[in-house]
Amino acid sequence: MIQRIDNALRLRFKEETGWTPIPPWAKFFISLGAALSTLCSPERRVVAALSVPTSSFASAFIALGRILSEPILEPARSDVDDHFETLSALPPQTPLIYFNGEALFEGPFLGILRHSNVDCLRMAIQGGTCIIPKHRSLLVEVQPEVPVGKAVCHVRRLRNPKPFVGHFFNLVDHYRILCSTAKSVVIVGEKNRLRNEVIQTRFSVPNGNVCAEGVLQDLIRIAKFSSGGLGCRADVYARSRTSMNRNGHSSMDTALLVLDGASSYLRWAHEYPRAHIVAILSRTESEYGTAVDSLNAAYLGRLDDCSLPGLNSSPPGIELMVHVEPRR
Q1: Per-residue H/E/C for 183-197
Q2: DSSP state of 291
Q3: Please, which residues have CB within 8 angstroms of residue 165's CB and are 6 or more apart in sequence?
Q4: What is the pTM of this model?
Q5: What secondary structure letter does DSSP report for 126?
Q6: What is the C-alpha to C-alpha distance for residues 63 and 199, in angstroms, rounded to an integer?
């Protein structure tokens, strides 16, 4: 986990003159996301408030630090059960892809069977038949449809990681991520701006004399910007949205809710009184003063102040206030 954060702090972005190290404020946001992931209590939640000149890239880098600092866990049993049931209902001969831990295999679905008292999937592969036990079913997916005459698309999740991703996750961790449906971060903000920041802006990790290029989406994996639901570790909602999918966030107690903007904080903070929160307040916003007053009132009713281990120094122009509140 420490190595992943170190690699993130070494990220570079592209300018006309070439690759340039990310600025101190970006490193601060990454370290903030990482520091927040170390705090977990069933009785308390963390509320962090940031006052910034502009909120550009703040939520993206905070989410990156949070996600890279988390342990990569085995997928939940419910995820396995749901995916196995979905695959079991497929018609015979549906084309599948299976990752056995070392290589990808493609072939048609042949049905299910009981083998050694374990439910299994059967698929045909070159040279024979493959029997896949239920607990490995998340490593199976349906092949994307490809129109006749078109090149094979690469939107599927079961594929070797890009070199950029390989600097952060080894192969085993990569596929554990792809098999998980748990989301670590929920962002409420401007979707179009966030899309530009995590999909269109190129970054690189130096590796000797060469650079492995990629985008933040390769690591953050925001569901709304992904072609598939599995393996997504973050979600994003527009700050003007009138409701959020609570069923999709039953684990909000352990997720980090990033409220990007004063209006996001004023609209959503009270809706999730158990979630850890980061409120990003840009001083150019019309509702900035109202949000600051609300946060100051919450601070007066705090349980305690909160220190964040490993946090980089706050750059000039960025102010941070952190406290803990009771989970209601």
Answers
A1: CCEEEEECHHHHHHH
A2: H
A3: 174, 214, 218, 219
A4: 0.79
A5: T
A6: 14
SS3 266: helix
Say whether pLDDT at 147 is over 60.
Answer: no
What is the distance between the alpha carbons of residues 267 and 270, in angstroms, rounded to a whole number?
Answer: 7
Q: Which amino acid is at 13?
A: F
User: Is-same-fold flag (2-73+182-326; 77-142)?
Assistant: no
Q: How far apart are CA 158 and CA 56, in angstroms?
A: 32
For the record, the structure tokens of 17 come out as 């003159």
Total residue count of the chain as it appears in this document: 328
Convert the pLDDT of each residue in 100-109 to its tens digit: 767 778 899 9
Nearest to 109 by CA among 127, 128, 126, 88: 88
Contact 210, 282 (CB under 8 A): no
pLDDT at 152: 37
> What pLDDT sits at residue 101?
67
Segments making up each domain of the chain, as ranges: 2-73+182-326, 77-142
Architecture of domain 2-73+182-326: 3-Layer(aba) Sandwich (3.40)
The CATH code of the domain at 77-142 is 2.30.30
CA 147 to chain centre: 31
Q: What is the pLDDT of residues 177-201, one digit of tens each?
A: 877 767 889 999 999 999 999 999 9
